[in-house]
Structures are given as C-alpha cells and as structure tokens.
C-alpha cells in the first residue's frame, strides 16, 4: 500500500544501515579484531588467515545465491533470513573459543554478507527507479565507509576490557537493532517484478558476457579482488608484526582506512564523470598499487599510514567504476554483467587469504604476502589499459 511506503531518505538510510551491519560489523571487523585475538591466544596468524578465507567463501556462496534469487519478491523473502543468519553468527562468535565452530560461524556470516550486499542495493535501485530517483542509490555505499569506521571503534571500545570471544559482543549487540529496523523498512518497499519486453531480452540472452570488449575488464577485476583484499584483511596484523602489538598504528591503521573510505564513493564517481570511467579506473588501480608498494618499501610506520589512507580512499571506487564501465560496454547485459563481475570479485577475494595462509605455512611472513597484492594490482592496471574506450 502506498501509505506504508517509507520516504526516500528513510529507504536510503535503511539500506546503508544494512550494508554497515553486514560489511562493517560482520565482515571487515575481523581485520582490526584479528591482531587482538592473536594476542589473546585464541588464534594463530595462520588460523586467522584461514578464517578470512572461509568468510570470503561464504560471501561467494551468498552472492551466487543472490544472483539466482533476483526477483524483488524473492529478495524481500531472503533479506530477513540473511539478517537473522548474520546476527546469529555474531552471537555465536561472542560465546565460543572452539575453532571449528568459529570457522563454521565465519562461513555463515560470509553467506549473509553476500546475500545482503547484492540484494539490498538491487531492491532499492528498483524502488528508486520507479520513482525516477535512481541517482540516489549510490548513497547507500556510505554505509560501507561508516561501518568500517565503526568497526575500528567497536573492536577495541574505549574504557571496556574484553578478551577472546567476548570481543565480538559490541558488534553483535549493535547489529540486532540496526538489522531489525533496516530489514523492516526493506520489507515495506513495494516493488513490482521488472517487466522485460521480448525485444529487450533477446540481446541479453544471446550475446556472450565475455567478448573482445569485456574480457580485459573481467581480467582486470580479477586482479582487483585479490589486490585489495590482502591489505584490507591483514593491515593491522602487519602493523602489529612490524611495529609491535602495543603500537598505536595497530588500531589506528584501520581507523585511517575507514575514515578515507567515507568520501571515496563520491570522489570516484566525480572523477569518472570528469575523466571518463576508464581513465578514472586506471587512476584508481594506480592508487591502490601505490598503497601496497608503500607498505612494502617505506619505513614501517610511514608505509602503514600511507597504505591505510590510499587503499581506504580507492577500493570502493574500483567497484563503482567497473560496474558502470561494464554497462557502457554492453548496454543490454547490465544485470547479468554486474552479477558475473560480483561473483568473479568474490572468487579472487577468496584466493588472496588462502594464498597468504599457504605462504605462511611454507615459512613466509605476513608482510611478504603484500607482494602478491602488488602483482595482482599491476595485472589489473595492465588489463584496464587494454580495455576499449566505452561509448558514453
């Protein structure tokens, strides 16, 4: 019923809140928590890398399921289930130190993250498009930056002493009201299943996703997923190894990442409009590559600070610009192309921590794994250069 529809502002804020919950309080809070849990003795560094891999595997499974359940009615049925799974996994993490159970919980949390991160933006975009306000949809990604910033505070809340599993309680308790409120508003969005004419559907069903125009974009995005996930997963842990567990940058590095993320979506959207999406994407990957090289080549404290600032201000831009560039290369393939890119990004994010764990198991050090990220981002830069100019 129209009277039950939330306002535009409430709908956008609710969607942003849900991304804050699953991405900030579910997925990436593990990054600042990891060195603390290792210092507590709950995990080893190698076990932490393995847990990150299981979480990213869950994200991939959730994203693939979200691609299958893409109709608005399917999305609205799935969102409450995904949010319930998120909250239950965080509550479970707050009460157990048993590693196999923690592994299962991180897998489940990844599934909920993948479902929400794909479904909520898709649902809101359909709702806004019906009201001719689709330009507002990008504002929901402010929830990602806010979630990263909040995760840095909640991982080590001022004046509160927590250890081992109890470190998850702040995120778990805050997730409950935000998930309830945001999920309730998403259920109030009345969205009809988008109709597709016969003429419109034919090109999308017959044309291949991978052709001479899009293949370089896919290859570049594969490198982007692996390149950014290593510093985003291990940067505080690397700071702890290089500077000592009590050094302020162990916690501050993540706060710098989070603060830099807040204006990133607006910045790269603006640069894409001014410079063109391909040129802006080249600049974006160059920035990400510089962030990883800074951590590898500069003195530890300076390198960690610069890496935090540059990777935080750039990784969301790669997502935004790649999605838009892909649509301009194949205008009739928008939904399918976007889904395929998300799945690919998930796969290479999964590979990054897994390869880091293998390196550690063979006697390497965690800071050395950033060379893998540098190589992946150089790969992304080269293939983006080979991506054809899209007609705008």
Automatic annotation (TrEMBL):
Is this entry keyworded Membrane?
yes
Q: Which domain of life is it from?
A: Bacteria
- Which Pfam family, an example, fits this chain? MFS_4
* PANTHER family per the UniProt record, alphabetical: PTHR23537, SUGAR TRANSPORTER
Question: What keywords are assigned to this protein?
Answer: Membrane, Transmembrane, Transmembrane helix
Cellular component GO terms held in the UniProt record: plasma membrane
- SUPFAM superfamilies assigned to the protein according to its UniProt record, in alphabetical order: MFS general substrate transporter (SSF103473)
From the record, give the transmembrane residue ranges: 48-67, 79-99, 111-129, 136-156, 168-187, 218-243, 249-268, 280-297, 303-325, 337-356, 368-385
Q: Write down what this protein is called.
A: MFS transporter
């Amino acid at each position: 019923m129209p009277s039950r529809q939330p306002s535009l502002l409430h709908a956008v804020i609710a969607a942003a809140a849900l991304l804050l919950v699953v991405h900030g309080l579910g997925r990436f809070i593990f990054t600042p928590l990891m060195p603390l849990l290792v210092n507590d003795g709950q995990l080893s560094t190698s076990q932490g890398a393995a847990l990150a891999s299981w979480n990213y595997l869950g994200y991939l499974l959730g994203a693939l399921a979200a691609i299958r359940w893409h109709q608005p009615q399917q999305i609205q049925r799935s969102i409450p289930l995904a949010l319930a799974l998120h909250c239950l996994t965080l509550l479970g993490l707050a009460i157990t130190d048993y590693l196999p159970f923690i592994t299962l919980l991180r897998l489940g949390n990844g599934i909920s993250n993948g479902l929400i991160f794909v479904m909520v933006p898709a649902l809101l975009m359909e709702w806004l498009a019906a009201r001719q306000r689709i330009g507002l949809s990008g504002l929901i990604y402010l929830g990602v930056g806010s979630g990263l910033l909040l995760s840095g505070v909640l991982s080590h809340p001022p004046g509160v002493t927590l250890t081992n599993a109890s470190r998850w309680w702040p995120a778990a308790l805050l997730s409950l009201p935000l998930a309830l409120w945001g999920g309730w508003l998403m259920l109030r969005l009345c969205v009809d299943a988008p109709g597709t004419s016969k003429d419109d559907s034919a090109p999308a069903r017959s044309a291949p996703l991978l052709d001479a125009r899009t293949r370089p974009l896919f290859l570049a995005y594969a490198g982007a997923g692996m390149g950014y996930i290593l510093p985003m997963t291990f940067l505080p842990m690397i700071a702890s190894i290089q500077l000592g567990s009590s050094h302020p940058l162990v916690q501050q590095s993540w706060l710098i990442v989070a603060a830099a993320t807040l204006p990133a979506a607006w910045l790269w959207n603006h640069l894409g409009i001014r410079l063109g999406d391909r040129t802006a994407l080249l600049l974006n990957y160059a920035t990400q590559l510089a962030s990883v090289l800074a951590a590898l080549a500069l003195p530890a404290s300076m390198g960690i600070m610069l890496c935090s600032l540059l990777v935080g201000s750039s990784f969301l831009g790669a997502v935004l610009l790649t999605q838009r560039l892909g649509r301009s290369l194949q205008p009739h393939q928008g939904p399918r192309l976007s889904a395929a890119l998300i799945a690919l990004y998930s796969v290479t994010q999964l590979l990054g921590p897994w390869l880091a764990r293998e390196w550690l198991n063979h006697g390497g050090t965690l800071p050395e794994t950033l060379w893998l990220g540098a190589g992946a981002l150089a790969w992304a830069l080269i293939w983006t250069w080979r991506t054809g100019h899209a007609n705008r």
